[in-house]
Amino acid sequence: xxxxxxFLLDNDFIEWRLFRTEExxxxxxxxxxxxxxxxxxxxxxxxxxxxxxxxxxxxxxxEKDALYTALMKNIHKQKRRKLYLxxxxxxxxxxxxxxxxxxxxxxxKSKSQLGLIENNTIIGQTLNExxxxxxxxxxxxxxxxxxxxxxxxxxxxxxxxSAKTKQExxxxxxxxxxxxxxxxxxxxxxxxxxxxxxxxxxxxxDFPTKFTGNTRxxxxxxxxxxxxxxxxxxxxxxxxxxxxxxxxxxSFNVTDYDDDFSKTVVLVEGSVAxxxxxxxxxxKPNRKLExxxxxxxxxxxxxxxxxxxxxxVLECNEMPFSEILKRVGRYYNVDFENxxxxxxxxxxxxxxxxxxxxxxxVMVSISVLSSTKYTREDNIIHISKx
Length: 386
Known about the structure:
By secondary structure, the protein is an alpha+beta fold. It folds into three domains: about 5-75 and about 95-100, no CATH class; about 110-120 and about 310-385, Phage tail protein beta-alpha-beta fold (3-Layer(bab) Sandwich); about 130-305, Jelly Rolls (Sandwich). About 30% of the residues lie in helices and about 35% in strands. The strands form three sheets. It has a 16-stranded mixed β-sheet that branches. Helix 2 crosses helix 6 (about 80-100), helix 5 (about 60-75) packs antiparallel against helix 6 and helix 6 (about 80-100) packs parallel to helix 9 (about 360-370). The protein is globular.
């Protein structure tokens, strides 16, 4: 841990800066004394943390008290010490956003974006709980969440799970393989040519065991971030329901869910040629193409907003809360329902939301920032006014 960003994500550091007990002060003073090489990073983290907490947009004390009470109430519900520690760890990481970083996650009245969502319904569909799985030929293999798959030169795939346990699966050579990542799950795939594919929730990727012919082609339904291995002799082509994307040594994000009104391609580096609805356009780095109702809209964007999901972060730039909930719903495999008097698409949010392992800790932040409350019934979350 040698950067201020690491300390800002460290739960002990967050707890210290939030509560600053004598015991914590002594502990960190000793830590700094024993690690003088980290003193500057810690001081920078303290300064950034303090700047956020002192900002004029910071959360009112009544909201802080309410959030802290909710935190403690939920912690005391945990009966076993292990669960207690896990829960505190996950929610403490979000506490720094909800309490301190309201300046970092600021709410705005939406002006130009009010028309982007046709109604106030959260579009989406939850899927039954299921594992990631791969189909090759007539064989289906279930995989765990966050599995990493890497194709080998001998037509196998090595699967590494979150515990770093490996297994090798023989792939069929006469048909396309299908990797299905349901809502609430994620996975990574390294194709036969070395191309890396980061796969978001609710996504299906069809790919060959090895690339033959003059092109390298895969099919995507959902959202992926791809780092394409350069090979000028074999263009890499991504097919979705709405478009075809031809790329050369490129990294880009493509989103094409069946239930989304718009489809997007965001280019990080390189170049891509996009064909859709009988039209073709070239995209340059730091540019986004949005296809909506047959119309092409291109603009310059901060690409980090569109690829932050690969690191477990939802980065927003005046994003409507209805869109935030849709993405959170996919990430955790939950569905949202809200009362008619809450116009979630009339408020937007800017900043970063860290997607911890505990959904309730994320929902606490969303509730505070949107001035709403929530209740859970299995995979359904009800949003209502405070």
